[in-house]
Design brief:
The protein has 349 residues and is of the alpha/beta class. The longest helix has 23 residues.
């Protein structure tokens, strides 16, 4: 198939530092190329891919201090995709909804993976208007605010098995937090869990300018005075396997309806179990007592910390390979692409 993957421009594909959507786009693109498909990636110019790259900005917008209006780059990218749309069998967008008006006339050859939360008050009217545009959810939980939307599939994220290699014998004697410094990600909960359980915590997280910076300075920094809580900052792709693989468990105490949670499967790939709050897609990803523990209170989380080392890391890794590989993800997307192609052919006949 001739496939266009259209990525956000905030981060490179894959990201140099933090970035979930662009990382998933990278894993999917590389696997589709490996399977022999003709793939073109529309992304920032500092992206790295074995597909054909169409650079739609010189570099990732978040890391470019000269960028004042990100929408200008996104508008230009969507126009470039439109100009070349006839060359592809499927246009796979990862941009949420900015492209919907422009591509409505050719909507049957598009599909959009929704990567973010969908409980915003303004979204129902938008997706009722664009009820003809095919959408893919990344979890069943993500769909709940928009059950009427034109969902054509649910595809859980996957990653290449070598990205976060299996570590059967972690050497860190610590628990890990990986994500972003913000209230909904639960970093305060992670600190409180570690304090009550009397265990070491290492926090690898990015701090967005603005509200998250203020939150870090006011709520998180004062808790970093103890040697048992270490703030690592953002980690890149090369640093992540050691950070996750040497942890006893990943703490994922989210306080929002997380659509998926890529950090959970990155940890599981290393064989590291996950202790996660029962929010969003967590029950779809973590298998209680097998790949981790699902909790609903600080007390339950503290108890899970004490049991984490009893889970077989080989079992965690094997479930990752069965459920969350990039190969499985790519086959799921190909099934959607082919179903849409058959639908177009039936309508044209």
């Amino acid at each position: 198939m001739k496939i266009a993957q259209i990525a956000p421009l905030a981060e490179a594909v894959p990201p140099k530092l933090y970035g979930g959507t662009e990382r998933v786009v990278s894993y999917l693109t590389e696997e589709l190329v490996r399977l022999g498909h003709d793939v073109t990636l529309f992304a920032s110019g500092d992206s790295e891919t074995s597909a054909r790259l169409v650079a739609c900005s010189p570099r990732a917008l978040r890391l470019d201090p000269t960028v004042r209006d990100p929408l200008a780059h996104l508008a230009l990218m969507t126009e470039r995709v439109r100009q070349h749309a006839h060359q592809f069998d499927i246009l796979h967008f990862h941009l949420e909804h900015i492209h919907l008006p422009l591509f409505r006339p050719m909507g049957r050859k598009t599909v959009t993976t929704m990567h973010g939360r969908l409980d915003g008050a303004e979204l129902p009217e938008l997706y009722r208007e664009f009820s003809d545009m095919p959408l893919i959810s990344i979890s069943a939980s993500q769909r709940k605010p928009l059950p009427f939307a034109n969902w054509v599939g649910t595809v859980h994220h996957g990653l290449a098995r070598e990205v976060c290699p299996f570590n059967p014998a972690p050497r860190g004697s610590y628990f890990a937090f990986l994500g972003r410094v913000s209230p909904e990600k639960g970093v305060e909960r992670a600190i409180e869990i570690a304090r009550r359980a009397n265990v070491r915590l290492r926090i690898a997280a990015k701090i967005d300018r603005g509200a998250d910076e203020e939150y870090f300075n006011e709520r998180i920094a004062p808790a970093l005075t103890t040697p048992d809580v270490e703030f690592v900052g953002e980690v890149n792709e090369a640093q992540k396997p050691a950070f996750l693989g040497n942890a006893t468990a990943l703490l994922f105490p989210i306080d929002w309806p997380e659509p998926f949670g890529l950090a959970m499967i990155e940890a599981m790939s290393c064989g590291t179990p996950v202790i996660a709050w029962r929010n969003g897609a967590v029950p779809e990803v973590v298998e209680e007592g097998r790949t981790g523990f699902i909790v609903e209170s600080i007390e339950q989380a503290v108890a899970a910390v004490g049991r984490a080392a009893s889970l077989a890391r080989s079992g965690v890794r094997s479930r990752f390979e069965e459920r969350f590989s990039a190969a499985r993800m790519a086959q799921d997307y190909l099934a959607v692409y082919r179903a849409l192609g058959r639908r177009r052919a039936a309508i044209a006949a």
